[in-house]
Amino acid sequence: MVTIFLFFFVYLLNFVTTESSLVNLTILQTAVAKGAVCLDGSPPAYHLDRGSGTGLNNWVISVEGGGWCQDVAQCLLRKNSKYGSSAKMENQVFFSGMLSNEQKFNPEFYDWNRVFVRYCDGGSFTGDVEAIDPGTGLHYRGERIFKAIMEELLAQGMNKSKYAILSGCSAGGLTTILHCDNFKILLPNSVKVKCFSDAGYFVNIEDISRKPFIQQFFNDVVTLHGSAKNLPPSCTSKLEPGLCFFPQNAAQQIQTPLFIINSAYDGWQALEGLGPSSTRGYYINSCFAHCQTQKQATWFGPNSPRLFNKTIAEAVGDWVLERNQFRQIDCPYPCDKTCG
């Protein structure tokens, strides 16, 4: 038993010191005055690890995932967790994968300013309802949170950046798609702004019982959070707001360069209806995975998945720095032997 404990301790210590670093939580108290608060009314939060050297004026932001709440009961559950209250969040998180501060684990972004935005609104940062439910105390203010945190990062130096990248995983990946053009508008024209969405390309398809479950679910989220006014107007001018929560409808008119990362066998994924774009890239592998950029094993390493001999980190790096407009879809499962 002692031997097993020591082995686990050494393994954990090695993981912490070589593949990730602990980064403190920053509570944005000033956001409260703007009404930019989590579901429970607490201030929003983020983690920032400062850049250095050649990356000092570059920024990469990763938005946390964690599903959505479509009704009051679900939002009340989130309210009492880290997905609805900054008071419930960890004081520190590990930065690994695309947030790692070591070049051998994160070749392009290791010395950039790296930010992890915590997700505490349950609506992919799209909601904005002024009224507070007196019975539940729930606040639906995701759009205000997003803007308040971005304004804080601009004041921290992002306004002087050369590159500013918005990314996210799952519900955070959807946030990236829905906010991509708005993020660019916040920054000076001199900044090279790009977005990449990891496992955030949710599609409008029937479930196995032939029911439009996800369509109704997203419609309920949009209605509850008051999201309609914050969804891309190029979509809401043509379709019902709930349908504009789907990337296949919302992403077609995005002007900012966008990169899509997904597994073809992620249960949420199918890349369709996006249309052509000279600045868009994609990395669609056939591994069974949901979210690959924040995990060291799938982001960059000797045993990481590869598509046309490129890891996700290498493909994203080539696209961000305009070395290669990577656009590849994997061969059907099980032909890809790199998935591990």
Shape call: globular
The span between the termini is 29 Å
Total count of helical runs of at least 4 residues: 9
Beta-strand share of residues: 15-25%
Description:
By secondary structure, the chain is of the alpha/beta class. It has helices at residues 2-18, 72-79, 142-155, 171-186, 213-225, 233-236, 247-250, 296-299, 312-320, and strands at residues 21-27, 45-49, 58-63, 92-95, 113-117, 163-169, 192-198, 258-263, 281-285, 327-329. It has a ten-stranded mixed beta sheet with strand order 4-1-2-5-3-6-7-8-9-10, with helices on both faces. The longest helix has 17 residues, at 2-18. This is Pectin acetylesterase. One of its GO terms (biological process) is cell wall organization. Residues 1-18 form the signal peptide. Keywords: Cell wall, Cell wall biogenesis/degradation, Hydrolase, Secreted, Signal.
Q: Topology of this structure?
A:
Blueprint lengths: L1 H17 L2 E7 L17 E5 L8 E6 L8 H8 L12 E4 L17 E5 L24 H14 L7 E7 L1 H16 L5 E7 L14 H13 L7 H4 L10 H4 L7 E6 L17 E5 L10 H4 L12 H9 L6 E3 L11
Parallel strand pairs: 3-5, 3-6, 6-7, 7-8, 8-9, 9-10
Antiparallel strand pairs: 1-2, 1-4, 2-5
